[in-house]
Amino acid sequence: MIRNKGYSAINIGLATGMAVALLIGLWSMDELSFDKYHKNHEWLGQLMTTQTFNDQIGTGPAVSVAMGLEFAEQS
Fold first, then answer.
1. Which pLDDT belongs to residue 42?
2. What gap in Å lies between CA 66 and CA 69, rounded to an integer?
3. From CA 26, how far away is CA 45, in angstroms rounded?
4. How far apart are CA 68 and CA 31, in angstroms?
5. CA 26, CA 32: separation in Å to the nearest integer?
6. Cα–Cα distance between 1 and 9 in angstroms, integer?
7. Count of alpha carbons within 13 angstroms of residue 30, beta-carbon side
8. Phi and psi for 35 in degrees, rounded to 5?
9. Which is nearest to 50 in space by CA: 38, 36, 35, 60?
């Protein structure tokens, strides 16, 4: 490694790039396979609500009861 610094730098860069690409690929596969065990998994989604409290905006999975009743009627 000391004698061939150029080759070492190239090899370290390529190895790092391959490791990052592998991790991104594994993460993507995990994200795309989420909830595939449900019967109608292609129709799944998550409804989020954005609210303001004390001049701070927050988003979360909480929705109103009326929205839940509307979705229950349509299914």
1. 78
2. 5
3. 22
4. 26
5. 10
6. 9
7. 6
8. 60, 35
9. 60
pLDDT by residue (tens digit) across 45-57?
778 888 898 999 9
Q: Which residues of the chain have pLDDT under 70?
A: 74-75
Report the C-alpha gap between 55 and 53 in whole angstroms. 5
Structure token pair of residue 67 = 């929205």
Closest to 74 in 3D by CA, of 43, 48, 50: 43
How high is the pLDDT of residue 75? 59
Which ranges in the chain belong to alpha helices (H)?
Answer: 5-32, 65-74
Beta carbons within 10 angstroms of residue 63's beta carbon: 14
Q: What is the pLDDT of residue 26?
A: 96
* Residue pointed to by tokens 């150029």: 6
Residue 56: per-residue pLDDT: 92
Q: What is the pLDDT of residue 36?
A: 77
